[in-house]
Specification:
Order of helices and strands: HHEHEEEEE
Oligomer: single chain
Structural class: alpha+beta
Largest sheet: 5 strands, mixed, barrel
Number of helices: 3
Shape: globular
Helix content: 10-25%
Distance between the termini: 53 Å
Strand content: 25-35%
């Protein structure tokens, strides 16, 4: 009985430690000034809704960079061009060449199919001039 009690106490301390580390990391992120979001309605502070960009309008809104210690979210609506899973996560992409392609890394694609119009919302990370990754991300039907 004492062994089980010590074990559950250790598990509780470990969970508390992990929660504190996550809170410290979140607190260490710097907030972007409001001026960053001017002219970029698809972008928002973390976990806040942005107005989804279209495949045609997204390129004009993309910032060249975001400070490494900041998180900014982006929302986009467009036709699904890729749905793939590695068994753990799902990859859902919208928009097609020659424009900007946006890849969402998510834990589920629901009932989305190729060609469906989907809304992707998540943490913005620009990979290169024509590729954006949203991670973490949520994908849903428009």
């Amino acid at each position: 009985m004492a062994f089980a009690s010590r074990r559950s106490g250790r598990a509780a301390r470990l969970l508390l430690s992990l929660a504190l580390i996550a809170a410290q990391q979140a607190a260490a992120q710097s907030a972007l000034p409001d001026s960053f979001f001017e002219g970029r309605p698809a972008f928002s502070q973390p976990e806040q809704p942005g107005q989804p960009a279209s495949c045609e309008s997204v390129a004009a809104q993309l910032p060249d960079s975001v400070p490494r210690d900041s998180r900014v979210d982006m929302a986009i609506a467009g036709p699904v061009t890729l749905i793939q899973s590695d068994g753990t996560v799902w990859y859902v992409a919208v928009c097609s060449d020659p424009g900007v392609r946006v890849l969402c890394v998510t834990y589920g694609a629901g009932d989305l199919k190729l060609g469906d119009t989907a809304v992707l919302r998540g943490g913005y990370n620009r990979q290169n001039e024509r590729h954006v990754m949203l991670d973490p991300c949520l994908a849903s039907r428009e």
